[in-house]
Amino acid sequence: MLRWSVGRRIDGLWVGSFEDKPEPGLRRAEEALSVIKTYDRRLYQRLIRDLERIWVQVTPGGLAHFDSSIWACVLDPRYVLDETKSSEEIASTIVHEATHARLWRRGIGYQEELRSRVEAACFRRERAFAAKLPNGAKIRDQADRYLAAYASQDYWTDEAFRTRHLDGLVKASQYLGSPDWLIRIFKALRALRLKLTHVRGGAANL
Q1: CA 146 to each of CA 44, 110, 143, 180, 188: distance values in angstroms, whole numbers, following the listed order
Q2: Where are the domains positioned within the chain?
Q3: pLDDT tens digits along 14-27
Q4: Residue 56: DSSP 8-state
Q5: The pTM is what?
Q6: Would you tell me which of 6, 30, 92, 191 could form a disulfide with 22, CB atoms 3.0–4.6 Å apart?
Q7: Could you tell me where the beta strands, DSSP code E, fall in the chain?
């Protein structure tokens, strides 16, 4: 998929898209990078060292994630092309995922027991970045809400991740226009996962 993506280099960082019409997504990603470079030059220099790629590509999360296998911040086009999202918001998301990359380079992975603390560090980095923006109050408030909402370790368990992943697969498949039979399979898997989760939860309470 990387091979068939359209991309270009920005300060040595590869920015690419796997979309049929790549330019809108690429332009939004570049605008977001420009925001980071303008308002936090030191963070920007660190970011282009920690990441190797920014890739616009459908992801089950529907927002973004860090892919450690290719050192990429993957941005979902449903998020990047959303006109209600500002360049500053997309920039803060890139900062979040670049923080994951920085932690990986320091040997801090994403094991279940570390996950909530890793995510908290990433949201705090978003908040620090937002403080340097002229109109960063919305992003700061959003980071604060996420820190509070996602503080529970239960949200970051492997089981919870798998359930959310299946839910994301259904939505991503619908967005991509996948055949109905494939969407039905993903829905069935999601329903089975939820059922098993409830069964395990009930057994644990016995």
Answers
A1: 23, 18, 5, 34, 30
A2: 6-156, 158-204
A3: 999 999 999 999 99
A4: E
A5: 0.85
A6: 6
A7: 6-10, 13-17, 53-56, 64-67, 72-75
